[in-house]
Amino acid sequence: MPKKIAILHTSFVFVSVEPMINDLIAELVPDAEVLHFVDSDVLATVVREQGISPNSEARMTHLAQAAESAGADIIFSACSSLGPAVDVASRSVRTPVVKIDEAMAMRAAREGTRVGVLATVPTTLGPTSDLIQAKAKEIGRSLTLEQRLCEGAFSVLMSGDREKHDSMVIEQAMDLAETVDMIVLAQASMSRLAEVLQEKIHLPVLASPRIGVDYLARRVAELPA
Predict the structure, then answer these.
(1) DSSP string, 72-85
(2) What gap in Å lies between CA 105 and CA 143, rounded to an integer?
(3) How many CB atoms within 10 Å of residue 184?
């Protein structure tokens, strides 16, 4: 029986604008059945409210519970901004929950010393930085983090102008590279640029989708038959 992977989405970006998560799951977990659960407004709400309210936590909990009710074997959260809300949601379900940036944060914690966190949505900076610091603490490492917001780039991407989005992100990354030894792209929507950036700045650039889906594939393989 193929395993059911439920993906929790907090905007339509990975459903309609960037289908990369579907592509990666098709490549790395080819026999899985994929279900999508979308609250297309919750990320916008968190951005508008500049943080995660109890109401936003409840919305993520509802998504996770809907996924469990649909018979998901594992739940994959595709949104970094809502990471803390996903932690709350995971306590309300028995189904295992994997966050897209979990494995990336662990790698940054293991390999980075001065880590630059680059985001295009302000609400992603805190959760991503906190996750990296938490993972570093778990393994007894200390590192410094520098946060950088590429303001306006996400709305440019959502309007369909990929080229402008990409040039904005590249410009900020090149500036950030002056003071760090690794850059973490805080959102999956920036990940297409990881290779380009690595060539331009000659530093490790981590992006969540492939690392995250690779970790998901390992977790799926560990599920009982």
Answers:
(1) -SEEEE--STTHHH
(2) 12
(3) 26
My answer on whether 10 and 85 are in the same domain is yes
- The tokens for 221 are 């393989």
Residue from 98, 94, 108 nearest 207 by CA: 108
Cα of 15 vs its chain's centroid, Å: 14
Give the CA angle between residues 86, 145, 218 to the nearest 5°: 45
What is the model's pTM? 0.87
Q: In this predicted model, what pLDDT tens digit does every residue of 188-201 receive, in sequence order?
A: 888 889 999 999 99
pLDDT in tens, 37-48: 999 889 889 888
Let me know: does 78 contact 99? Beta carbons within 8 Å.
no
C-alpha distance from residue 60 to each of 16, 36, 43, 171 (Å): 20, 13, 10, 33
The CATH number for 81's domain is 3.40.50.1860
Q: Do 117 and 61 fall within a single domain?
A: no
Write out the residue range of the structural domain in which residue 29 sits: 4-100+211-222
Task: Count how many domains the chain has.
Answer: 2
